[in-house]
Amino acid sequence: MKKLYWMIGGVLVCIGFVCSIIFWKFQKEIKKNDPEYIVQFIKEHKEDKNISVAIQYNQQHWVELNTKEQLPLASTVKIIVAIAYAQQAADGRINPKEQVNLKELEAFYIPKTDGGAHKAWLAQLNLQGADSVPLSEVANGMIAYSSNANTEYLMHVLDFQIINDVLTQLNVEDHEPLYPIVSALYIPIHLMEEKNLTKKATLTALRKMDMVEYRERALAIHSNWIEHPLTIEEKTKAQKMLNMDFQKIWSDRLIRATTSDYISILEKMNGKNFFSAEVHKYLDPVLEQLMQNPRNQAWLKHAGQKGGSTAFVLTLAAYAEDKDGNQTEIAFFANNLNTMEQIKLSNSMNSFQLKFLTDDKFRKRLKEEFSEL
């Protein structure tokens, strides 16, 4: 059977044999890679505006559910940064071979806020004493490992206005502007110190803050970090501040868009005729890193994706063309998930994509069942 090697970016204490069995069954259940879980989840949440799904197959609308609902993108928004990177590389405005000192990335890294993504990227670099990497590798780490620090550094290099101009070029209708999401993690500390607030009062003030002020504060913090990076002590303080209440506010205020927007973007990338060949020269190596695997090369012409998650969100935007010329685009956004839902969706998404791409009976059944929703 064909396999697709995607990269998707609890503690339970029991005593005795019975609790061990319960724990084993619990672990087995949440780790199950089951495409039917995705199908049933979509059906059960068809009235829930926090779930949005759009699937396209050979330019036909296959599955559509709440496709105009704006939901937080989490790291899926990094697709836009990758496009801006490729365009500026193609235009000669940036040099992908330029060396970036790792200390420059460190300025945008707050430990234990990215699921270990940045450390995992650094660990596989095999630097052998080097303290810098090419800009192209920073972009690779943004997508393959979902490093938030790399993303925010690239946002600085590429310029926020130029990045947001990409949204106009793509002609998306409901995509919010990009802003620095790592810097936004520091807003609670900054607000508390600026206004001399208690933690509870800071939480209340954040909830009342409109998005214009929120983005402006994030941009101001980002600009300040360029010249005055946080100390280790300041990063530790920020990290300790981010309990689940503050994380929920941060998650809810992440850049939002619709699955309708992302199906449009994915179709442009999948068709290879919207962007110039020179742009694809830089874009494809970043977004299509799963094609480095020979097993994927055996049956796919090209394929790319970016997923995203927080404690409450799971998103995915993926595209592929197989060697028979069949093109697929999938956009799945979910918000306000509980822990079990988040884990099970994440663990099952790979097999769902694979089954849709390779199983004609599964595709036809989905089209029939979801046309009735």
TrEMBL record:
Keyword hit for Transmembrane: yes
Key words of the record: Hydrolase, Membrane, Transmembrane, Transmembrane helix
Domain Beta-lactamase class A catalytic: 58-174
N-terminal signal peptide: none
GO MF terms, alphabetically ordered: hydrolase activity
Transmembrane annotation, as ranges: 6-24
Annotated Pfam families: Beta-lactamase2
InterPro entries linked to this entry: Beta-lactam/transpept-like, Beta-lactam_cat, Beta-lactam_class-A
Full protein name: Serine hydrolase
Organism this protein belongs to: Lysinibacillus capsici
